[in-house]
Amino acid sequence: MAIPFQGKFASTAKQSSAARSSQTGLVFDPIYLRHLEGNTGHPERPERLTSIMNGLEKAGVLKSLYRIASRRATDEELELVHSPAYLALIQRELSNLHGLHELSTGDTLTSPDSLEVAHYAVGGVLNAVDGVMTNRVRNAFCAVRPPGHHASRDRGMGFCIYNNVAVAARYLQKAYKINRVLIVDWDYHHGNGTQDTFYDDGSVMYFSTHDYGFGVYPGTGSASETGTGAGSGRILNVPLPKGASDAEIVQAFQTKLVPAARNFKPEFILISAGFDSMQRDLLGQFDVTPDGFAAITRVVVGLADELCQGRIVSVLEGGYRLDGLADSVTAHIKALQGR
User: Fold this and answer.
1) Does 31 map to a domain?
2) pTM above 0.90, yes or no
3) Total number of domains in the chain
């Protein structure tokens, strides 16, 4: 279901069904601002999303996007990836919270509304998947939080509670009988939770560019980690050096991702869009510019057009310098639109 935004970002534009199928969709809900609300000292703060929305509005992009509503993901949907025991633990720890709380499973700070927000983050991504699969939109970007790619079956960590992208991959397979899903992750930090979920799977290919080395969180993502069993060769980690530039990340996409994706032949592509790879990020040490994010987006769009009818859903992960985040997301969305 698509609805206009409330408040400042409301839109009165009418969108015909014919126009929707060629548009890029956007998931955003004010509920996402309630996670860590008022705690501006944390890098994963609500201002990340308001910065993105203001940037899209300033650039004249917001009015061109088809608005996709969020919804609350069900426990059954979350259990496509996460264990019932983990869901029960999260429920115990986050229900009836007063103030801030760090998850017992890892370094993820939460607040009284975080449990509900995390459910709506996953549900928003699943609605975006529905929008693409039913041809209401061509592709979509999900401005959701908390992020997800560090969360594994039994553990939330690295600012993540539920793995938004991993649940979306399993949802595609269950609800739409999609056989092969490609996940592309360009966050500065390796998506260990996503890799763990699909390491021995084979039906989901995981490609990641990131920093890897001593002291780099979360300590996974070596090029030697390639999957096992049915998943052997379906994990493709491409560590980049500190200071990696536009040219270096684009080369990795062109020389590593493109041939691997053509061999895998995905039916849908999910992006873990982590913009902490940008220059001067608070938590990253790469040097990727908005032009660089646009360039790697165009590589993925080209693969989607070639291999899977243009089907892409992109999901926000990291990115903590607010002005750079707004500019980078705007460039990314313009590239999704074919601009």
Assistant:
1) yes
2) yes
3) 1
